[in-house]
Amino acid sequence: MPKEIYLIKVGMSMTEGMVSEWFIQDGGQVKKGELVYALETEKVNLDVDADYSGTVKHLVEIGVTLEPGDVVGYIFEAGEDIPDTLAGAPATASTETKHEPEPTAPEPVSAPVAASAALVSRDGHIKSSPAARRLAKELGVDYTRVAGSGPGGRIVEADVQAASQSDAAVAAAPAEIATGPEPKASPLAKRLASERGIDIRSVQGTGPGGRIVQSDIENAAVTGVSTGAAAVSGPRAGETVPVKGMRKTIASRMHHSLQESAQLTMDMEVNMDDVVKMRTSLVEEWANEGIKPTYTDIVIKAVGKALRAHPMMNSQFLGAEIALMTEINVGMAVSLPQGLVVPVVRNVDQLPIKELARETSRLAIAAREGTLGLDDYAGGTFTVTALGMYGVDSFTPIINQPQTGIMGVNRIFDGVEWNGDKPVKTKKMNLSLTWDHRAVDGAPAAEYLVEVRNLLQSPYRLLV
Questions:
Q1: pLDDT digits (tens, 9 = 90+) for 342-359
Q2: Class of 183-235 per CATH?
Q3: In CATH, 247-463 is 3.30.43.10
Q4: Sheet strands side by side (includes 382-386)
Q5: What is the CATH number of domain 1-101?
Q6: With a cut of 50, which residues of the chain have pLDDT below it?
Q7: Is 207 exposed, middle or buried (0-12, 13-18, 19+ CB in 10 A)?
Q8: CB–CB of 214/205 below 8 Å?
Q9: How far apart are CA 427 and CA 123, in angstroms?
Q10: Which DSSP state fits 66?
Q11: Spatial CA neighbour of 414 closest among 223, 206, 236, 272
Q12: Distance between CA atoms of 192 and 190, rounded to whole angstroms?
């Protein structure tokens, strides 16, 4: 009897999703543990592997919106009769959700490696499976030069294996992609450039002394710089952008959040002099370990510690009752070219700042690489979102339902305080707190914000 392939449920809040890509063609063979389809949900994309080995038959096309638990295909074991058509499937994707058709997968060729063979997606990523990238790293193959034989030209394990055994196989050798000495770049920037197929020699560095940093690689991926393929760009004037996938979910949830809760926002100015000094010391102290705490990390720690003293802010409004959460798990908003995701740092009140910085870095990198797991999104009780890097002084963050609060982190600016009649230059920042007035009144919300401010103005309390 054939085994069902289900549209898996990602998190308790998932209400719909779709197969955005089939990795195994209809009628193709799959082994247990190999990737079978790509899931696109309300807020996360995920590659799904097969629970069984056998012949894959598709039940739905790419882009059909379904509910979690719906059957999207079957796996037939050896010897089973396979019908030409399967009953009970949505025939095609709706106009609203249908993706543009992918090009037909190419037939296998004898020489699978070509300098410009890899396909680049709109977000600057080389289209390849995680397993293929891991294997390429193990075998020393430059996967950005491998022709993919998977759906839509995606690079799969078999392509990397064939490349490693072929005379045309090319190990990762930047000298063949561009000439000249390798520029100064951070280890993370070099790794991201390699993974995303970007020639690091063509990237303009914005770090100290022209050093190439992570943001330079991410910007190059978005603009299509030096990928060895046609430039990748965002929407242009006159085009229309379909509201689907992550963008559709963000639009729906933000609108729902504003409709279903009584949201108010207040700002409060914080003296950041001691935070700046402490962070500078911690960056120097942990440099050899590759840990670089950000100002947002320190705010997250202050937010978590203050929630322990103000449990009503760490709650959910459930209509007939307000549930106070037992854990303090803070979501951190990460901006991606296609939208916003909110992975969760667990037990923030208990984490030392060093471990917190290590975890936020891991989550941010995983979010941008599309490798976040299901647990990385689960259990958030409060959220922190930052726009300070864009020079923002104040904004109104929208609550991530069903949470009660969200903290906005703004830029650090030069301010003035008075020592008697003498003005003293200081570093300051505004915090923007949005809270649900159904659960918490204005005065308790202000008391919570004062607690966060006091912790930031005496930041060494966060180290104990």
A1: 999 999 999 999 999 999
A2: few secondary structures
A3: no
A4: 263-271, 422-436, 405-419, 382-386, 330-332, 344-345
A5: 2.40.50.100
A6: 91-117, 121-125, 167-179, 225-233
A7: middle
A8: no
A9: 36
A10: B
A11: 272
A12: 6
